[in-house]
Structures are given as structure tokens and as C-alpha cells.
Amino acid sequence: MSTPNTPEYPPTEPGYPAPQPGYPVGQPGYAPAPPPVPAAPPKKSRKGLFIGCGIALVVVLLACGVLGFLGYSAAQAALQPIKASQTFCNDLKAQDYTSAYGMLSTTYQGQVTQDQFTQASQLHDQIDGSVKTCAPASGNTSSFNFSLDSSKTTASFDVTVTRNKEFTGKLSLVKQGSDWKIDAIDPALQGTDLGPLQVANTFCQALVKGDYQTAYNQFSSDRQAAFTEAQYAAQLAQALGTGASITGCTPNLSTYSVSGTTATLDSTLNVSVQGQTVPVPQTVTFTKENGVWKISNLQNKVS
Q: pLDDT tens digits, residue range 33-46?
């Protein structure tokens, strides 16, 4: 007897492995654990940075303070000679020539006596007008050629003096002890050149004394080439005549003029004749030779 056919069931399909123990499948709420998150690095302290910045700030402030002090000291040092020059100026404005002379350095006073300084100052007041103002040329130490040496014992700067017109030149000072003194004055700052007037005065005084050699030495080289000293003395004696003598000269300062290397002056030669003074008007012309003023011509003026 045959057995009825029984259907065959294939074995389990390949590719579906059996679940491994410990890993339940299909159960809700069980997901694989996420990877671990690395820990955040510890925060760096900024305390050192703040301390460093604080130290830097202190250093900068100290440096600024030192520079400020040095700047203040330099300004104070610069003001001292400027104040001394202002004192000198005020003395000239007040025509206090004794005090002004006292503001000159020892070296300067060795070059000019107080009488010579006073006479020159008075002549400038007559010719150029009295001093009205005088000050550093542009009013501040950064723009008028101010110079103070490293030892702070000499200084120089441009000054403008106002009389009837402005005169500008350099004023030099030197420190003597604790005081600043005027050590040199630019001729351009003093006013009109007084050299020709000094020559005229020397010439006149020589004539009064009968010192013909000194009088002859005041002439220019061209003038001296025209006659000798002996010839000049003889001509002058003949012109004066017997019993006449020269007693002095009176310059007319209103006619005094200097231009470059030439100058002119009207002057009166005072001649004594038998007890009476006879004025002889003259025009004196000057020329500058090798930096020295000389008389180039004498011409009598017809009244």
C-alpha cells in the first residue's frame, strides 16, 4: 500500500540569519547607543592678558609724562632768553640806555663803552625814530629761527624792531651765571648804518685839533690819489686864511641817507674868524671800501 504524497517544505530561506542573543529585534524603545561626545576644553584664563595690558598702559603713561616734562623744560629754557630780550627792548623803548647797557654781555661791553652805546642809541632815535615795539619776528619759537644750544648757554633768534619803519635781524644771547645777556645785535636790526656819521665826526674832530693826518686818512682811495696829505693841509690853510680856525661841525641829521655802499650828509663847518663864527655849509659823500666807510667827496653849498 502506498503512502499518500506529502508536500515538502523547503528549509529556511538563506540570507536571514537567526537573531543573535542579546540584541533584541523589533522591540520598541531599544535603539543603538550614540557615540560618546568629547568633553569641551577648559576655558583659558584672561587674567594674564589684563595684567600685561595694564603694565603696558602704565609704561605708555610714564613715557608720555617724561616726554611732557622734557617738553615743558625745553619750553621754559627757551623762554628765558626771550624774556631777557624783552627786558632789553623795554629799556630801549623807555630810552633807559643805562639799564639797556646793563643787559649787554661782558664781551659786548668790552667792544663799546656806555657813552658810545648811549650816543648811538640816541642817534638811532633821531634818525630812525624811537623804538615803538620789538618782539620775536613771528611770535613763536617754532617759526622764527629760534636756536638754543645743547648746553643751554647760548641762544639766537630773529627779532623785529619797529621805529619809523621795521628793522629785522638776529639777536644773540649768552648765559652768564643765572642771567641771560645780549651778546650780539645784527646791524640790520639796529637801524640805519651809523658808520658814515662816525667817519664824519672823526674827520671834524681832527680838523678842530689840526690833526691833518687823521683827517686825510678818512678820505677814500680815489680822493687820496688826487692829492697828498701835505697838499691837502696846504689847501685847507689857504682856504681858511690867516687867523681863522675850525671850531666844530653841525650835521643835519634830517638829510642823512644811506643806500648800500654810499651815503650822504649835509653838514655845517663852523669857522671862527676874528671872534665870529662863520658857517660853511657842505655836502659830504661817503663810500664803503672793503667794508670801511670813507669820505669820497666834500662840496661846499652855495647859500
A: 555 655 556 555 56
